[in-house]
Each structure stands twice: as structure tokens, then as C-alpha cells.
């Protein structure tokens, strides 16, 4: 039997409240409902509602769950279309991380009266550019690219910023880490985890989010190497690229280009 899109008014109100009436997609922040006649939002299913829909999973076929707030994310029409057309880059776990990170940011913003409007943030783009070119050594970057990344990341939640800054601190404290022959922006994720407060699952969702947004990368067990597949005693294979706990403990981590831009911001302004 085909599932119906039966979302209760209570769920809709709660979803808007937890999303801050704003698109949850990183860097968008489109206001979604201005009044009863101007509503720009799409209520999107994380697990698809029926066969043929994006991210459909027959094991999640309970209509009550599929239409629950847990399985819904509030997006603008543009980003709803994007996640449904590009399932490879926006699987279920990525959308869950985007949802939880944004809703946590909204909660923190409301509780601490922090605005996520970046108009009052004045970063010295020239100083960031000079640091990136001279210290990091990449001369192909543009000032417009730096400005864009600064504006996007400055809107992230305090928890996301804290994890990213701790990563950058670990990189600078001991760039060799436990890998011996590695340097630059390679780091040991467990060194980061051990210095952060909170539960592992909270940290895991933020780390996955930073990976999905191309700030950091784990390359040892990324699904494209022989190391990623472990054969059990019964002859079946386990894909370690899906085991984020294992990757955190044993992986080979590095800060990517976007993360290096944030490092230039952090080193020149001591904040993000």
C-alpha cells in the first residue's frame, strides 16, 4: 500500500520552530515563511516516502515514522531539488547531520541570543589572503573565495566551530601526530576527540558533517582502497568506510582546502 504524505500540523509547527523558519542547508539561511501568502519552504523526507522517491528504504516503511519530525528536514525549494537529484552526495546520514547541526545551532542562538546574521562580522580579507598565500603556500586562491567561505562558516553552530577549531589546534600543536612521516595538515582524530567535551555520538555527527562539507577528509578507509573492506571469518566483507567510529580511531585524517581557509581565518583573527 502506498504511503501518504500525512504530516500533522503539530509536527509542522515544531519543525518550523526547531529550524528557525530557515532553510537548514549549509550556507543558505533562506527565510521560509513570511506570512500565510508567502511560504517558500519544502518539508522534505529524509527517508523517501514511497518506492521511487529519493532515499527510499523499504525497511523504513512505517508511515508514522516517515512523516514524523525525526524524518523531516525543512529546506528551500532549490536545496530540496538538489538533495533529491544528487543522492550520492546527500545520503540519509548526511541529511541527518545537516538537520541536527542546524537545529542545534538554532537552539543555541535562541538560548544565548546570538544572531546568525553575519552583517556585523568584519573579517580582514586581506590579512587572511596574505596568511593563506604566504604561510599555507597556495597562490591560486582568490579573495572572493575566502570571503564566501568565511560567510558560510560564520553561520555554523558553536559546536561545529568548536570541533573545527580544535582540529586546527591539534594540527598546529603536533603536525606529525602518530603517523611519523606525515606533516602539514594531517592529524589524529582521537587527539581531537579526547580534548572535546560531550558524548561520542554528538562529536560523530559533527565530524561527519565536516567531512560532507569538504573541510576534512579521512583517506585510509574511504571506500576506494583495499583497506576499506574487511573480511570476517564467515567470508563476508565489512565496508569500513561506513564505520565512522573505526575511522575516527584508526583513520588517516587531513584538513582540506576549505579547512585550510578556516585555518587562515583562525590564525589571523583567533576566532571563526
Walk me through the structure.
- The protein is mainly alpha-helical and about 270 residues long.
- About 45% of the residues lie in helices and about 10% in strands.
- The chain has eleven helices and nine strands.
- It has helices spanning about 10-20, 65, 75-85, 90-110, 125-135, 145-155, 160-175, 190-195, 200-210, 245-250, 255-270; strands at about 35, 40, 40-45, 70-75, 185, 215-220, 230, 235-240, 255.
- The strands form four sheets. It has a three-stranded antiparallel beta sheet.
- A hairpin with a 5-residue loop joins strand 7 (about 230) and strand 8.
- The termini are far apart.
- Residues about 110-120 and about 175-185 have low confidence and may be disordered.
Question: What is this entry, summarized?
Answer:
The chain has 11 helices and 9 strands. It has helices at residues 9-19, 63-66, 77-85, 92-112, 125-136, 143-153, 158-173, 189-193, 200-212, 244-250, 257-269, and strands spanning 33-35, 38-39, 42-45, 72-75, 186-187, 216-218, 229-231, 237-239, 253-255.
Task: Name the features.
single chain; mainly alpha; 272 residues
| Major pleated sheet | 3 strands, antiparallel
Structural class: mainly alpha
Number of strands: 9
The span between the termini is 50 Å
Number of helices: 11
What spatial form do the alpha-carbon principal axes imply? globular
Radius of gyration: 20 Å
Written as H for each helix and E for each strand, in order along the chain, the element string is: HEEEHEHHHHHEHHEEEHEH
Fraction of helical residues? 40-55%
In percent, how much strand structure appears in the residues?
A: 5-15%
- pLDDT < 50 stretches: 112-120, 176-183
Question: What's the average pLDDT?
Answer: 80
Read across the widest sheet, the strand sequence of neighbours is 5-9-6
